[in-house]
Automatic annotation (TrEMBL):
The gene is Rihb. Pfam families: PTN_MK_C (PF01091), PTN_MK_N (PF05196). One of its GO terms (biological process) is positive regulation of cell division. Belongs to the pleiotrophin family. This is Midkine. It comes from Chauna torquata (Southern screamer).
């Protein structure tokens, strides 16, 4: 057999094997999948404490599922881990209250979460003045 014909045969065998593997993967997804389209998901519940790995339960008619999820440990508890916001820059420091504030507009609500459209956060002003270079005296 010529090298060109051998190469062509090898390419066809590889293509057939790839197509068969893709078909098996689709069949598996259909078995695990559900016909239901209107899933209602609950909040992510951490396994321990108030952040880290956990699970989220969902229901659709008589069916129920449990998905793994993760709550970052630096999440804003006030908003919930399923509400994603785009925040502005921090405002100036208020001399009366000693705090600075900023607002955030809802960017995405995951798993049908009930989220506020606009949220406001505040934090204490820093009292330290940061120096720009360490080498100067």
């Amino acid at each position: 057999m010529q090298p060109r014909g051998l190469l062509l045969l090898l390419a066809l065998l590889l293509l057939a094997a790839t197509a068969q593997a893709g078909k098996a993967k689709k069949d598996k997804a259909k078995k695990d999948g559900s016909e239901c389209q209107d899933w209602r998901w609950g909040p992510c519940v951490p396994n321990s404490k108030d952040c880290g790995l956990g699970y989220r339960e969902g229901t659709c008619g008589d069916e129920s599922k449990r998905l793994k999820c993760k709550i970052p440990c630096n999440w804003k508890k006030k908003f919930g881990a399923d509400c994603k916001y785009k925040f502005e820059s921090w405002g100036g420091c208020s001399t009366q209250t000693g705090v600075k504030t900023r607002s955030g507009i809802l960017k995405k609500a995951l798993y049908n979460a009930q989220c506020e459209e606009i949220v406001y956060v505040s934090k204490p002003c820093t009292s330290k003045m940061k120096s720009k270079s360490k080498g100067e005296s």
